[in-house]
Amino acid sequence: MTSETKVVLATEISESDIVRKKIKSKKTINQLIIDINTEESELYIADDERRHIHISKHPTQISCFKCMDGRVHIPSITGTPIGLVKPYRAIGGKFKVFWPALRKRFHTWVELGLDSGKRSLAFVTYHCSASNPHLGCAGWNYQTDQAKAHITNFCEKLSHVYGYALTAIPTRVETDGDIITLHNGDKEVSGANLIGLTSEKAHLQIAEVFPRMENELIEDILPFMMGNAVRVAYLRDNPRDLSGLDHHERVIALGQGFDWLARQNFALIINDIDPNLDFAIETAAKIVKGNLKSASKNDVATLFTNIPYRKPGMEQREAEVAARELQEFAQDVIKERHPDLWKSGKLMFLIGVTFEPSKKLTVLDQGVVGA
After folding, report:
1. Which region, left, alpha or beta, applies to residue 337 given φ > 0 means left and ψ of -120 to 50 means alpha?
2. Among 52, 57, 164, 184, which is most buried by a count of CB atoms within 10 Å?
3. Are 240 and 234 in contact (CB under 8 A)?
4. Do 216 and 154 fall within a single domain?
5. Tens of pLDDT along 243-282?
6. 17 domain-assigned
7. 1-46 pLDDT, tens digit each
């Protein structure tokens, strides 16, 4: 284990406590998001060389389908740099191939890979808790078997659509120990299985579970699985308080480009690809409202909308308008379906755009919802 890995893991262990301690007044939560972005943007820029070296050795482009639960954060549980994995989020990970926005964006992503001679791989995840079912996925009413069946079916459909261009792997994330498990029918391999193994032996273990997978693809999965083995071993040697893994979120993050935001139990992250976006917002608001009821009287929450852009000019202006309109839409939903939260004075708002090449957030507006 490198010293760099140790720092990443130790920071991850304590960050949920740090976040909760800082959320004490209306003045702090938006600033905390801005501070997190400043820190993560600097780290992203500093990791640019590391990212390029990784991509040169492991050219397969990687995506991850996951729940809006912020605990499922691949960089944190694999020790890999932010920016290697394209994230897609929805309540419970209940994705459907027919979703128009998802179909367009994901198809474009796969095609861009093909145009540059790259295969694509998708970790299609569900999450659960080994110690307590109610620390699992609320989006599936804690029914892990249903979640697994759905993502397995979704993987089959993605494989049918994209053929050789895409490998979709049903993936479990056990959030007590941050254990990633890859499924192939009744066979599986996890980060826990790989603890202490050399890369060569780990490669053989993955190949046993996926006998038809090309060696090159296994090699491109290895950094994530070996990094997860390090993470799992660390948590076994340094157990954390599992009570801190229950829902304590204070942020509803809506839009795109939130890979830098993930903190344990800090944000519910919703991509704007869901055609039932109003229901996703309603559900997230219900969770946050419940969290506030069990919190101290000074605790507040925030509704954060963000859209990324890559080029100044038209693309940036489009992102700015989209972020503002997304905020208006979300506030209208909350006003209609959770009027007590909307007028409570305890829900802030934050509107921003993120410059993708640096992950730097620009704040467009902020304040109190309903004021």
Report:
1. alpha
2. 184
3. no
4. yes
5. 665 667 899 999 999 999 877 778 999 999 999 999 999 9
6. no
7. 333 333 333 334 334 444 444 444 445 899 999 999 999 999 999 9
Using DSSP, how many helices (H) and how many strands (E) does the chain show?
A: 11, 11
Same domain, 267 and 325: yes
Alpha helices per DSSP H over 47-143? 48-57, 74-78, 100-115
End position of a domain, from candidates 223, 242, 261: 242
Total domains present in the chain = 2
Q: Are residues 110 and 226 in the same domain?
A: yes
Closest Cα partner for 242 from 144, 296, 175?
Answer: 175
CA atoms within 13 A on the CB side of 267: 25
d(CA 224, CA 6): 16
User: 24 in a domain, yes or no?
Assistant: no
3-class state of residue 236 by DSSP: helix
What is the C-alpha separation between 264 and 19, in angstroms, rounded?
Answer: 9
Residue 339 structural domain: 247-368
Q: Does some domain include residue 159? A: yes
In the block, tokens 């963000």 appear at 306
Are 252 and 303 spatial neighbours (Cβ–Cβ below 8 Å)? yes
In the chain the first and final C-alpha atoms are separated, in Å, by 50
E strand or H helix at 351, and its extent?
strand 347-355
